[in-house]
Amino acid sequence: MNRQTSLEITPIAQDDLSALAALEAACFSEPWSANALRLLLGDMAIGYVAKHKGQTVGYGGMLLAVDEGQITNIAVDPNFRRLGCGTAILHALLSAARDRGLSQIALEVRVGNTAAIRLYESNGFSVAGRRKHFYRNPTEDAFVMLRDLSEN
Q1: How many CB atoms lie within 10 A of CB 139?
Q2: From 120, 135, 140, 151, the catalytic residue
Q3: What is the reported pTM?
Q4: Quick one: which of 4, 32, 62, 142 has the fewest CB in 10 Å?
Q5: Around Cβ 152, how many Cβ atoms within 10 Å?
Q6: Active-site choice (24, 48, 59, 108)
Q7: 56 with 12: CB under 8 angstroms?
């Protein structure tokens, strides 16, 4: 089954928050709560949810400040990884960033998360720095990655 072709990518809605919180819990050692995810519904945020046959299988969020974006998380259900879901969510965020005239997008990623680093690098992000002990459970450094949109 080609799951990517049957993905539906839509803006996050209030009704998605509990499913996104469950996805967070499945993907991260320090998950965001449904209440924290509500931040992605505001005017200064962009968020997309990926669904396959009505099931929430991924999401991504980005906070906005003036002309810059900060990707908060991209989470994909473990059963849907390596099938293009993360790429589809990232492309939706990049498209929305361009539509809003953002000049740059930043994010942090665990230095050991090679799959995510490859995803970001293949979409024009580059490592700009390192934050020591940024993550907990387990403690790990983060790469700060940036994507310049000003020339696009």
Answers
A1: 9
A2: 120
A3: 0.92
A4: 4
A5: 11
A6: 108
A7: no
Is-catalytic flag, 135?
no
Tell me the pLDDT tens digit for each residue of 124-152: 999 999 999 998 889 999 999 999 998 65
Is 48 a residue of the active site?
no
Residue linked to tokens 């089954």? 1
AA letter at 97: A
Distance, CA of 96 to CA of 53 (rounded, Å): 24
**What's the pLDDT at 152?**
53
Q: Indicate if the pLDDT at residue 97 is higher than 80.
A: yes
Question: How are beta strands 126-135 and 140-148 bridged, if at all?
Answer: antiparallel
Instruction: Return the biggest CA–CA distance within the chain.
Output: 42
| DSSP track, 48-113 | EEEEETTEEEEEEEEEEETTEEEEEEEEE-GGGTTTTHHHHHHHHHHHHHHHTT--EEEEEEETT-
Element housing 129 (H / E): strand 126-135
